[in-house]
């Protein structure tokens, strides 16, 4: 690790003392209003039939979807607060059955590494919403939304609801083939309060959070403003990850007439990346192999050697194998990589991800009559993003801007007149999207009828640019800065998406039996306007006006039976790096009239039981997934080669899930889940002539563990509190022919804390907590697929997990 990860003991003590002082100086305002979130309205959860609201007394921190015809679980804020502050809410739901969540950092917030899948459906085949507002598919490439770690401060979330098989009809998503995650924000408190926390831990991690609630200002007007800051050094290599977040929420409570809520959320996240690894690199360079951000001289030498080797190979090919007369572009650099490096891809100098987001909106939740209600949310999202790689594949020409107002001269050792063997490559993003979701509900006796719609326009700008790097002793550009003055634009396009979706649903309560059904329809138009380069210009559309969903719940007193059938479609995305536009114009023209959107049909059923302190849920499912589009990676990710898109036909998935929550005694609870999933490709990948390109039939879907088991014990007597959790996952394949895989692993986390109550003077209302992630210091591969998947063989497409890390937190008001 870099030198800045090895602070002296005195420095650690001073930082922790400052955090402790800040927490204890907060005024002792009563915090009762923060003990549990108020129940959330149906509309706020997903604009349709919601999961059962989290109990207002906070007695159950996990609700197993009672009353729902689908497999649904809700995790309350009280459970999320047991994790280290700043932890992604995705990590909080990782213990639920069927949920495969991976990240290379302790917080689960490092976006390049964050992956979540449900029942074999990967992240961009799921739906995500925040208070009903669509977050897109939360992909790293920032195409049609933003990640939840930027959309909301984790302490401001009241609940997270997971529907493993299919989201509700009104969910604002065009990608939810295999389930949804719906995040709900906490409402402003009725009483004024000040809530804060400070965290210090491994790798010089500092996390601070503060929220000020106004309380009722009169006439039902109340709100809060909050701010969060995170900075941490990488756990290996050199570099840091930093985020600023701010949130403002204002609510006018109209009592029986409803409410009006406005919000603005801001995030600025900048993170140095970890090096993507392959099994080969891992075996040669070890678990802690990373980018060489603290060694610019070595990065320059690797680039020189690579370009000498590439130029010599090209010369030999053009001269029947002869190298007579060849002159290397970098004199004196030779043809051997520095000791410890076997290929040009073993280590790059640096890489980073930058994201700046504004997300705002207003919701009118109106009770027009005792039977008729209307909810309408209008929202706007603006994003600026940049993904950076300092690459040896694109040397900088002499005369390129140096980023500091000057130009770069030719390097003294460059025969070809180059300024540097390295270039600064970016993928640049700009999202400008706005939309509205509106639904009405009519309740008449035993019947509830709903009708709703969603409209969004998204203008997405994306470009691939290169900026000049020099050959000096220190780099002239920082990967965590937005860049200007490129020397080359490889491609630049404007990608427009227009989304129109509607739904109709009806719920009929017949005593013990509840029936629900309806359908949704959507049309998504995608257009690519290429301004520079040789990628795709054109348009494509996905449309289906009838996607039905039916379900039933039969109550047996303390138990209930449920079943549902759902059809869904995933629309195409408008991007130069994913979807049908991420190819050549010739390739797009060949597929545009025959390419079909992915669709799924899901059947699931099960039983739930609630008796005393026990909640139990068991479900089985079958999924028919059609027109599965497989993206084949071409070369290492840093090269930026367009991927190949192929229709792999059908995927069949079936499995079972069991989860249980049990209150053993008053303060002691246990939660456990197990899931089995078998997901296989049913067809080979073929070309237009019917020739088999990749024999995928019968192969297991990539990144799909067959077995997952999770469990945790929680003790909380209002003074002492503790948590221990374990997460097991079986092996996962990372190529389509299943000849390479990563092994299973068992990971354990734990935390312990104490709340100071009456009799502790100025400490009253303060809590101190210590937490440890990866308690057994397990070394394992966490994320796979960072650079896509290949047909067979090894691939530089995974990241190793963070080792054991510790954190200490002081809280007030939680």
Automatic annotation (TrEMBL):
Which interval of the chain is the signal sequence? 1-33
| Domain TonB-dependent receptor plug, first and last residues per copy | 70-171
What is the membrane topology listed in the Swiss-Prot or TrEMBL record? Multi-pass membrane protein
State the Pfam families in the record: Plug, TonB_dep_Rec_b-barrel
Which key words tag this protein in UniProt?
Cell outer membrane, Ion transport, Iron, Iron transport, Membrane, Receptor, Signal, TonB box, Transmembrane, Transmembrane beta strand, Transport
Region Disordered, residue ranges = 32-53
Which InterPro entries does this one have? Answer: Beta-barrel_TonB (IPR000531), Beta-barrel_TonB_sf (IPR036942), Plug_dom (IPR012910), Plug_dom_sf (IPR037066), TonB-dep_rcpt-like (IPR039426)
Residue ranges of the TonB-dependent receptor-like beta-barrel domain?
A: 304-775
GO CC: one term?
Answer: cell outer membrane
Q: What is its main location?
A: membrane
Task: Name one molecular function that GO assigns to this entry.
Answer: siderophore uptake transmembrane transporter activity
User: Where in the sequence does UniProt note compositional bias of the Low complexity kind?
Assistant: 32-51
Q: Where in the cell is it found?
A: Cell outer membrane
Q: Which family does it belong to?
A: Belongs to the TonB-dependent receptor family.
Protein name (database record):
TonB-dependent receptor
Protein source organism:
Sphingomonas metalli
